[in-house]
């Protein structure tokens, strides 16, 4: 089936698909969400019934052996199309000089608006520098890092500082407009992999109540005080759960989340260790909960570093995504570092996994940027 034919089918599907009203009842947490943001939510919900979008972190910012080249991505160099979902990061919006923060905002704004103007989707990770011990970065360092969550929630010693950081986030969100003059909808995925201990917001470093307080304050302050109405909020633990109850252990509640997801490298070949059966089971937990709660679901991070398994795309990833009739809006693999010879998760021209990736690309189930209908209407 040709890619053009797939686009025509999806467009026909959307032409007879009326968006549910009113906003909020079907999962959008923000009653004042922009029309484009509501459209993105509903269109991703519809599209996930038969397809999945492919995403790549930092895809258009840099890649294997290159940095900052206009219009380039490793995925496009291989397939002719950018990924449908582009991952960016808000890591540069705090813990740096004001000049660096402003430069980061400018760079991010360009990535956001360029992606929107092409019809793609933006998802945002946040490798958030510890606001209490900024010298430790975003990772947890024993005996050095502060368990900062309790300090930045309401009543904490650094709460005012956290509000200033969120004001910087809102300034970017409310200034990112496409060529059509509309604010760009974004999937904001803060505090990811919250069930692990490697980040300062991880499970060993804050109580369940503290984490939920942090999440709820973050959403409420951005949405209700700073008037950010172009975010969909994504909740994505790592793969340390084996049941719905474990997945939801630190879930802040349906009124605070638009998308549920999972980061999972461990079951999909990290360090040569495969447990696809376990990975599929966890994806099904995410998908089933999303259906029940009226939320979007996504495989928010995965990948196999260096892709030594040249059939990984179809034999591991695609096979898993197609199992159990799951509904996933997108799957995103991690970044291709510009300098490291081994730290990459998507193929580049000449990589041994390119033939298998082309099969993954050509499969009718997977959608890339050139396959997308207008997701914002």
From TrEMBL:
* Keywords of this entry: Carbohydrate metabolism, Glycosidase, Hydrolase, Secreted
The protein's predominant localisation is secreted
Question: Which residues are marked as site: Plays an important role in maintaining the position of the catalytic nucleophile?
Answer: 192
Instruction: Return the InterPro entries for the record.
Output: GH, GH26_dom, Glyco_hydro_26, MANB/E
- Molecular function terms in GO for this entry? mannan endo-1,4-beta-mannosidase activity
A single GO cellular-component term on record: extracellular region
Show the active-site residues. 193 (proton donor), 301 (nucleophile)
Domain spans labelled GH26: 35-370
E.C. number: 3.2.1.78
* Catalysis performed (reactions): Random hydrolysis of (1->4)-beta-D-mannosidic linkages in mannans, galactomannans and glucomannans
The UniProt record lists the keyword Secreted: yes
Where located?
A: Secreted
Q: Which residues bind substrate?
A: 127, 198, 265
Could you state one GO biological process linked to this protein? substituted mannan metabolic process
Query: Which PANTHER family does UniProt cross-reference here?
Result: GH26 DOMAIN-CONTAINING PROTEIN-RELATED, MANNAN ENDO-1,4-BETA-MANNOSIDASE E-RELATED
Q: Which family does it belong to?
A: Belongs to the glycosyl hydrolase 26 family.
- Protein name, please? Mannan endo-1,4-beta-mannosidase
Q: Which organism is it from?
A: Rhodocytophaga rosea
What does the organism's lineage look like at the top?
Bacteria, Pseudomonadati, Bacteroidota, Cytophagia, Cytophagales
């Amino acid at each position: 089936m040709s890619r053009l034919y797939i686009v025509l089918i999806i467009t026909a599907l959307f032409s007879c698909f009326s968006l549910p009203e009113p906003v909020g009842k079907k999962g959008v947490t923000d009653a004042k969400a922009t029309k484009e943001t509501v459209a993105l939510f509903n269109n991703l919900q519809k599209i996930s019934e038969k397809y999945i979008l492919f995403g790549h972190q930092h895809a258009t910012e840099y890649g294997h052996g290159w940095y900052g080249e206009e219009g380039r991505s490793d995925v496009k160099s291989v397939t002719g199309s950018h990924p449908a979902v582009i991952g960016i990061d808000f890591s540069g919006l705090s813990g740096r000089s004001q000049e660096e923060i402003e430069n980061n905002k400018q760079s991010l704004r360009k990535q956001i608006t360029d992606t929107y103007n092409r019809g793609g989707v933006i998802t945002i990770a946040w490798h958030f520098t510890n606001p209490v011990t900024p010298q430790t970065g975003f990772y947890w360092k024993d005996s050095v890092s502060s368990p900062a969550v309790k300090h930045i929630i309401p009543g904490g010693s650094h709460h005012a500082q956290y509000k200033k950081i969120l004001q910087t986030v809102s300034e970017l969100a409310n200034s990112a407009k496409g060529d059509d003059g509309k604010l760009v909808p974004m999937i904001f995925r803060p505090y990811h992999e919250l069930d692990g201990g490697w980040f300062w917001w991880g499970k060993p470093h804050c109580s369940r109540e503290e984490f939920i307080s942090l999440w709820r304050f973050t959403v409420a302050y951005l949405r209700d005080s700073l008037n950010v109405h172009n975010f969909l909020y994504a909740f994505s633990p790592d793969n340390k759960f084996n049941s719905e109850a474990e997945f939801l252990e630190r879930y802040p509640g349906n009124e605070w989340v638009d998308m549920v997801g999972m980061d999972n490298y461990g079951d999909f070949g990290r360090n040569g260790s495969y447990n696809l059966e376990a990975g599929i089971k966890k994806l099904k937990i995410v998908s089933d909960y999303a259906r029940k709660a009226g939320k979007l679901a996504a495989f928010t991070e995965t990948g196999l570093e260096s892709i030594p398994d040249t059939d990984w795309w179809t034999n591991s990833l695609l096979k898993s995504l197609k199992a159990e009739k799951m509904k996933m809006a997108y799957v995103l693999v991690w970044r291709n570092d510009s300098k490291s010879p081994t730290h990459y998760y998507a193929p580049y021209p000449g990589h041994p996994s390119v033939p298998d990736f082309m099969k993954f690309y050509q499969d009718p189930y997977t959608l890339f940027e050139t396959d997308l209908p207008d997701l914002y209407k």
